[in-house]
Design brief:
InterPro entries: Bact_HTH_transcr_reg, Tscrpt_reg_HTH_GntR, UTRA. The structure is a single chain. The protein is α+β, with helices and mostly antiparallel strands. The chain is built from eight helices and eight strands, in the order αααβαβαββααβαβββ. The model has no long low-confidence stretch (mean pLDDT about 85).
């Protein structure tokens, strides 16, 4: 049987996800939450502690807690696949390969994947969805050594990351992300079901193994109304770097 504080924590998570409590806003006081749920303040503190440990709310003592993030936000403090992120929100991740072909590595491919120019690499265009609604286009280039394993995965696989781990033991360990905004072109608009020139959040990333061997590089384009990203930093630990646009 689920403990009462776990039920309350889950209700608060869903309320944050629905933006009843938006990022930067305050949760109700412990006394108000205790009255709402008909429990003691100690039970509320247990629920709040769980959300604090997950990074959803601030940990300041003696004051109302500030909402720091929702599960809809993907934090760059962790390296998770799209499917893992969706599952953490209680959503269903979907995927479909639109196009897949081998091409000779361009100069950019060679630099990002540490290969010789002209090496055959696998290009994959994939549409990703939440509960069947398209929200992301992935244009991914896979290094030659992992391309055959990717090529054998069924086109509608929900999690390529998980499948590669199951089939080959591959662990995506490190990622470098560059974020900017672009306008949807004709293909982007058609595949995402949006108007041409609609704003998209673009994340260009290179992912490597624990040993630093590049696995893939990708140009990911998210519908701006569907996904946001968060970066948690502090005076002692700042993972965010500002750069001029390329």
């Amino acid at each position: 049987m689920t403990a009462r504080h776990e039920e309350i924590a889950d209700e608060l998570r869903r309320a944050i996800d629905r933006e009843e409590y938006t990022v930067g806003s305050l949760l109700p006081a412990e006394t108000d939450l205790a009255a709402r749920y008909g429990v003691s303040r100690g039970t509320v503190r247990q629920a709040v502690a769980a959300l604090t440990a997950e990074g959803l709310i601030g940990s300041r003592q003696g004051a109302r807690r500030v909402v720091l993030a929702s599960r809809r936000s993907q934090s760059f403090a962790e390296l998770r696949s799209f499917a893992q992120w969706a599952n953490a929100m209680g959503r269903e991740a979907t995927g479909h390969v639109v196009a897949q072909e081998y091409r000779p590595a361009t100069k950019e491919d060679a630099v990002r994947l540490q290969l010789s120019a002209g090496t055959p690499v696998l290009h994959v265009l994939r549409v990703r969805g939440l509960d069947g609604e398209p929200v992301l286009l992935e244009r991914t280039v896979y290094a030659d050594w992992i391309s055959p394993a990717v090529e054998s995965i069924e086109p509608d696989c929900a999690s390529v990351t998980q499948r590669l781990y199951e089939d080959t033991g591959l662990v995506f360990a490190y990622g470098e992300h560059v974020i900017d905004a672009v306008s949807a072109g004709a293909q982007d608009a058609e595949l995402l079901g949006i108007r041409r020139t609609s704003p998209l959040l673009r994340v260009r990333r290179v992912t490597t193994t624990r040993e630093g061997r590049p696995v893939e590089w990708s140009d990911d384009r998210y519908r701006s109304d569907a996904v946001s990203f968060s970066v948690h930093n502090s005076i002692d630990n700042n993972a965010l770097a500002r750069k001029t646009a390329d």
